[in-house]
Write a structure and sequence with these properties.
Structural class: alpha/beta
Helix content: 25-40%
Number of helices: 18
Number of strands: 15
Largest sheet: 6 strands, mixed
Radius of gyration: 22 Å
Strand content: 5-15%
């Protein structure tokens, strides 16, 4: 599970952090653990294969003729349109022959629009895809293969997420992960030690029970009963949703059963986590900000919201583990339209946007999200921002990244598993029945390769 190649990076970043400084803090609300439903790419673009459409990124800027390309994205929507425009202006100074018309589309509408445009042959020259939708677009031949990438500039895990059968169809435009965020004041009231990076779920559950005992309206932890949490916790107990070559489902394995029981028993047995009725329509972030929740495993994009909304002391650490550590990884791909007649210019833009030092620094300065780069000097500035004090845990978590089990019918698989887990959490079926039913329904409705 560990990514050993990141150890040197972390060591260098720690020393660099001593001399680096940063201004600004925040995160994009567009990156959420509740991802947009996967859109199935229409059969209209299946005439031709992705392998036949390639573009060499190493040849960027070779063509000096003036060209205008279109770029569509969702991640800048709402709060980072200005930052993206500044990125483009810096790019245009380096490549004055390339003009980029930027389309920023709201997250809720983006994938419906892109599905229609790709099917109709009107897709932009390059665009953004979340990790859940990426596989469907790549498998249907909608994306150009990217060759000649200088891989040393990218985080290895982020780059590999957009590699299909040994071919690179996207570069990682951003990077986010999940940490355990905790209310220090509640830990003090319960007179228990703060969480640390070595904690297992046994440690976390003991602390959750102590906090739950403070009063009837205070809860120890909130961890969503969803597919996104389940596949990660399964990995923490040595389980998985699919076998290694993604030819069979392994949803109801003994390891997964242990993971699912841990998640659901927090609600149904110990009640250290509130049930739906006890939540009373309140969201998990709202519950934490109210000061009535001890711990919440959630994304680093929560930092800005909690900095503004919490009137108590809070900090972070690496997520607890079961038999091993595993933590969420989120990234969006920047891709080139396989049918574009301006692939070289499009590839030049997305590669600059994803990996240039200037773009990376602008992203961090704006408090957007992390760039998926390996430049220690740029990344070290992120550590200077507080709260949280233990921001190093963000980077320590990179040692344990687990990527979602991406298949073409990802959305259907996620919906089936979430539905069954929700039924178990409400007491309608047992946890074992939930996993057995999810296994059967996925096998019946989804064809794996």
């Amino acid at each position: 599970m560990k990514k050993g190649n990141l150890k040197k990076l972390l060591a260098v970043m720690m020393s660099a952090a001593m001399v680096a400084s940063m201004a600004g803090c925040g995160s994009s609300a567009a990156t959420t653990e509740s991802q947009a439903p996967q859109e199935t790419v229409s059969k209209a673009e299946e005439t031709g294969t992705a392998a036949a459409e390639t573009v060499d990124i190493s040849a960027q800027g070779d063509n000096q003729e003036a060209v205008t390309i279109t770029y569509a994205n969702f991640n800048a929507s709402g709060s980072n349109e200005e930052t993206l425009q500044k990125m483009y202006e810096a790019f245009h100074e380096e490549y004055p022959n390339i003009t980029v018309n930027i389309e920023t589309i709201g997250y809720d509408d983006y994938f419906t629009q892109m599905q229609t445009r790709v099917a109709g042959g009107t897709a932009p020259d390059c665009y953004e895809l979340n990790i859940e939708n990426f596989a469907a677009y790549a498998n249907k031949g909608a994306l150009a293969e990217l060759t000649g990438i200088d891989t040393s500039g990218y985080d290895e895990t982020a780059l590999s997420a957009f590699n299909v059968d040994g071919k690179q169809y996207g570069v990682p435009g951003n990077f986010s992960n999940v940490v355990l965020i905790y209310n220090k004041d509640l830990f003090d009231q319960a007179q228990i030690d703060y969480p640390n990076d070595d904690w297992t779920w046994d440690d976390a559950l003991k602390a959750a029970e102590a906090i739950r005992a403070l009063d009837e309206n205070t809860y120890g932890i909130y961890q969503p009963i969803t597919f996104n949490e389940f596949f990660k916790v399964a990995a923490q107990y040595g389980g998985s949703i699919l076998n290694e070559d993604k030819t069979a489902f392994t949803i109801n394995s003994p390891e997964n059963l242990t993971a699912a029981e841990m998640m659901i028993n927090k609600v149904t047995e110990t009640n250290v986590q509130p049930n739906e009725e006890q939540m009373g329509g309140m969201g998990d972030w709202d519950l934490f900000q109210s000061g009535r929740l001890g711990m919440i495993p959630t994304g680093i994009w929560a930092f800005a919201t909690f900095t503004d909304g919490c009137d108590f002391a809070w900090d972070i650490c690496v997520e607890p583990g079961g038999t091993q550590k595993a933590t969420h990884f989120f990234s969006n791909a920047l891709v080139v339209n396989a049918k574009s007649d301006k692939k070289e210019a499009a590839a030049t833009w997305i590669n600059w946007l994803a990996s240039s030092d200037k773009s990376a620094q602008m992203r961090i300065d704006a408090g957007w999200d992390l760039p998926a780069v390996n430049n220690q000097e740029v990344l070290s500035g992120y550590l200077a921002i507080t709260p949280p004090e233990n921001r190093q845990a963000v980077f320590d978590s990179l040692n344990y990244l687990v990527v979602a089990p991406i298949i073409e019918d990802y959305s259907l698989m996620a919906d089936i598993i979430t539905d069954k887990l929700t039924m178990a959490a409400s007491g309608k079926i047992t946890v074992k029945d939930a996993l057995d039913q999810a296994q059967s329904e996925c096998e019946a409705q989804i064809t794996l390769k």
